[in-house]
Every structure is written in C-alpha cells, then in structure tokens.
Amino acid sequence: MRPMLLLGLATALLAGIAPLLSIYAQHIFVLVALYGAVALAWNILGGMAGQMSLGHALFVGAGAYVSTALYLKFAVSPWIGLVVAAMLGGLLGALMGYTVFRRKLSGVYFALVTLAVAEMALHIVSNVSFLGAANGLAIPSKPDFANFQFSSKLGFCYAALGVLAVVSVTILAIDRSRLGYVFLAIRENERSAAALGIDVVQGKVIAAAISGALAALVGPVYANYVLFIDPESVLGVPLSIDALLFSFVGGLGSLFGPLIGAVVLVPLTELLRSLLGGRLAGVHLIVYGVILILVMRLAPQGLWGLLSASMSRRRK
Amino acid sequence: MAQRGGGLMDLLPLLPQALADGLLLGGVYAIVAVGLTMTFGVLRIVNFAHGDFLAVGLYLTYLGATLLGLDPYLSLVLVLPLVTLAAALTYKLLVAPVIRAPEHNQIVVTLGLSLILQNAMLVFFTADLHAIPSVLSGHVVRFGNVFIQAAALIASAVSIALCLGLYWFLRSTELGRLIRASAQDRDAALLSGVNVDRMYLLAFCIGVGSLGLVAPLIAPFNYVSPSVGSNFTLTAFIVVVLGSMGNFAGALIGGFIIGIVEAVGGLMTGGSINFIITYAIFILFLLFKPEGLLGGRRL
C-alpha cells in the first residue's frame, strides 16, 4: 500500500499549496491538473494496454456536453452530471473498443477509428441545435456548490485535484491488480498473452472503457470552470493530440509520466502564449511538434525514463 | 432537413449535377489517396502528415503565382521537384529511423511533423483563405444541364492516369518489382541483393512527391489554407482502407465513392453533414468488411 500512501500525501501537499498560489498560478494549477488527468486516462489505454487513441477528445467532449446539457435543459446538478459523464465515457470507450478489437485490426486502425469517431461527434454536435450547434453552450455564472461553480479559483483547484486523484487512484489500483498484468501482457505480446489464456479482446475493451470513463470526468469540470463549451474546444483534434503528446513526452510506459508531461508542457504553452500574444498563433504547436519528434528520437521513454535513469545511476 | 418539404422529387433535377460534382470531388480524393496508397498501402508507413504535403504544394503554387506570376499549371515544374525533395528529406530524417519501429512511433513522428508543417504555414501565411487564379479558372464545360469546371476535369483525368500509371509501374517494371519485394519481405529482399532502403526512399518519394503534381492541378478550383491538408489526410486514409490497402484501382473507386456520397449527401441534407456520412461509411466498412472493397488481395 505504500504507493497509495504516497499518492495521498502528494494530494494533501498539493491541496495545501493551492491556497498559497496567486490567482494566475491557480489557473495554471487547474489546467495542469485537468490536462494531466486526461493524459493519465489516455495512458491507461495508450500506454498501459498499448492501444493508441487519436480521439480522446470524444470522451472529454461527451462528458462536458452531457453534464452541461443536463444542467441547462433539465436543471440536473453537474455533480450528477459528473457521474453520468463517466458512465457515458465508459460506454463509448467500451463500444468503440469492442467494434475495433473484435476484428483484430492492428493499432493504426484503432487510431484511425478513434480519430474518425471523434470527428464524427464534432460534426454531429455542430449540427444539433439542442446542443448549441457550432456556437456552443454558455453556462450562466451562478456560483454555488450545488451548481459545481465555485466563487474562487481555489474551489476549482480542489475540483481538478479531485479528478486527478480519482484517476491516479484508479491507475494504482489497476497496476496492483491482475488487470495490470493483463494490460502489460497485451501490450508486450498479444499472441503470448492469448496463449496464456488471457482474453485479449476483453482486456482491451476494459482498458478502453476505464480510459474513456476517466477522461470523461474531466469534461464537466472543464465546462464549469470556463463556463463555455463548443465543439472545437472540447471535441476537436487538438485536445486528442494534447493527451497523446503529454503522455509521450512524460513517458509512455510509466504510470505517472503523462502527468509530468502536462506539468512541463502546459505552463510552457501558457508562457509562449503570453509572450507571443495572439500574433503568432501556431508557434506553441510548432514547439510541440519539435518536442514530440525529439522525444521520439532521443528519449523514447520520455521524461519519466530520463528521471528514473539518472536516479538509478546516482544510487550506484 | 425538415424545411425541404417538397420532398425528394424536387431534388431529382439537381441529381445529375450532384453526381458530376461528386465524381470530380472523388477524383481529387483519389488523386490524394493514390500517394497514400503507395506509402501506407504498399510500404505500410503510417504518415499522418500526408495531407500537409499537399498544403505545402498548394502554398508553393500560391507563391509561384504571387511572386513569379506563374500560372498553377506552369508552376508544376517548380512544385513537383520541391515537394519531392521535401519528401526525400522527410524520409531520410524522420521516417527511415522509425521504419522498423512499432506503428506507434511512426504515428507520433508524423503527427509531430504535421503539427510543425501546419503551424509553420499558419505563422507564415496566416489563416486567410487564398484562391489561386489560372487561365482555366473561369472555364466551364457544359454537358446538357451539367456544368463542370475544366480544371476539375483535368485533375480527375490525371487522377485516373496516375492510378493506372502507378499500378503499371509497380506491376510491370523492374523497379516496381523491387519495391514490392522490399515491402513484402524486407529480409528476403535484402538477401536477394535488393537495396531495400533505396527502394523505400524511392517509393516514399513517389507517394508523397505525387502531391507536388496534385497541388498545382487542384489549385485552380480549391482554396488554400493551412488546415486544408488535415482535412485530406483522414479522408485519404479512409479511401485507402476502403479501396483495400495498396490497391490503386481500389483507391480510385474508393475516392469516387466518397466523393459521390459527399456530394449527393450534401444535396439531400443541406450540405453540412456530409463528413458524418464519410466517417460512418468508414466505420461500417471496418465493422463488416475490413479488407476493403476489393478483398484482401494486395495489388
């Protein structure tokens, strides 16, 4: 249980630090925690089980839209929306996984299908006036605990940290259980896994469902934080690429590498944005592209790999 | 949808025009997918920057028109070699190191390249749409009630020629045989004395370089924007899968099918949801016929 204890300590520490931060730093805190949670969720499927998704925005967007629509149209509290979001995300993940993995199609097909499904969802939502179509949905600002809106940024720091903690606990629980070994076996060699009596299709579908459910949790928190969602921001390809990018930069195989990726890259993005302003809109994405290629070429294990390598060297 | 109360009968007279538009759009999809058929279908290199090379070609055409006053058809002599050169550099620097690595690595490296290319174009050219005029821009050919842009007709014709040409090249020439051998069994080809790396380089240059031929041809009837390529990338992948990986005839048929579906679907639904239909077709194919239209035969 030591990792769980460490996780609890880390969460408590972060919760203690949050009130001391400036408003701007709290904003970064929320973004890092939310992006980190998406990346960690992505990594359950992409890193731990080895099935690369290019469409995780689908889950975040589905979560954001279902909770926002429930709140705006049926006055259902976003707290309930959060639960519905996770269920919807899990269902979508399982469906998508079952569709592709049952056919024993290789990795690139799964990547293409996830990309296509996410794009399809984006175009569908853009055409449904009930969901605000391309204009998106704005949430009226009514700070109240029951509305999942907090009067200060600190409240959102705790909400984002909460989601991050839920995702992290799930990852540790998977890693400790038989499921963790199933994922590992599937990732390393599907045929040997099957020969050992592991139901490969079922394993991958479970990974997709958990990953989808956890990513969907981020949607409602994000929606209530910025009080506005539209198809491009929560269902667009850039969000899916962010999830993948943070995971690869942080370290694909590791449990918490993707969080490191978010910790490094999210503030970097904000820094570049504030330095360059609106003039050079695409520069931070060029930097992302270069980082992605460099990591792939020079440090395939990501930042986590570099850190643990230098740690073990020091120990000797 | 509801506001079209007149029903389908009212749309019937428009159908021939929609079919023609669909065929021409399909020609464009096919011509972009042909290159991907070579790199993805035959070589199994996953290149998510494929469409971005088309965008690069379009911007080169645009530069040729604005800086040198070249008609798109004339700038072909510049754009084709430049895009081919870019393809060669890409292969040497980025693709070759991960050619035998898992698919993941290829996807990530080419996604990185796509981010760089797209946003570099965004920084240099802004997000504004540009049209590139050509001597053929205004010319319309009329068949009965159907109007067709001359430039689109030329692009479709070249598309068909390119498919047949590449099919013949792979099928019947010595080089084509060497490329196929390299793709099918790298080690066996090496043992037989084939310079596998060079064959891959050549095939990749043909596949991506073909976009240097495509860009000037579609420039007269398309807008240029930094994101134009990413729209084509996913559609090209869909067309390649639909047409049975690595099958040039399949890519041609797949391209025309997607084009017609989008044009006719757009006519019946009011235009904005034709992408949804394309993706739905792709997913249905993966579900029920993952080997594509023409079965599992490779080439």
Termini separation of chain B:
42 Å
Structural class of chain B: mainly alpha
Average pLDDT figure of chain A: 90
CA radius of gyration of chain B: 19 Å
Low-confidence stretches of chain A: none
- Work out the strand percent of chain A: under 5%
Q: What is the beta-strand fraction of chain B? A: under 5%
Oligomer: heterodimer
Protein structure class of chain A: mainly alpha
Secondary-structure element series of chain A: HHHHHEHHHHEHHHHH
**Number of E strands of chain A:** 2
Order of helices and strands of chain B: HHHHHEEEHHHHEHHH
- The CATH topology label of chain B is ABC transporter involved in vitamin B12 uptake, BtuC
Biggest interface, chains and residue tallies: A-B, 43 and 40 residues
Largest beta sheet of chain B: what is the strand line-up?
A: 1-4
How would you describe what is shown here?
With 316 residues, chain A is an all-alpha fold. Chain A has a two-stranded antiparallel ribbon with strand order 1-2. Chain A contains 14 helices and 2 strands. Chain A has one domain (2-236). Helices cover 77% and strands 1% of the residues of chain A. In chain A, helix 1 (2-17) runs antiparallel to helix 6 (153-176). By secondary structure, chain B is mainly alpha-helical. Chain B has one domain: ABC transporter involved in vitamin B12 uptake, BtuC. Chain B is built from 12 helices and 4 strands; from the N terminus they run H-H-H-H-H-E-E-E-H-H-H-H-E-H-H-H. Chain B has helices spanning 8-11, 15-42, 50-67, 72-95, 103-125, 150-172, 174-184, 186-191, 196-218, 228-242, 248-269, 274-288; strands spanning 130-131, 140-143, 146-149, 223-224. Chain B has a two-stranded antiparallel ribbon with strand order 1-4. In chain B, strands 2-3 form a two-stranded antiparallel sheet. In chain B, helix 2 packs antiparallel against helix 11 (248-269). Chain B is globular, with a radius of gyration of 19 Å. The interface between A and B is large, with 43 and 40 residues.
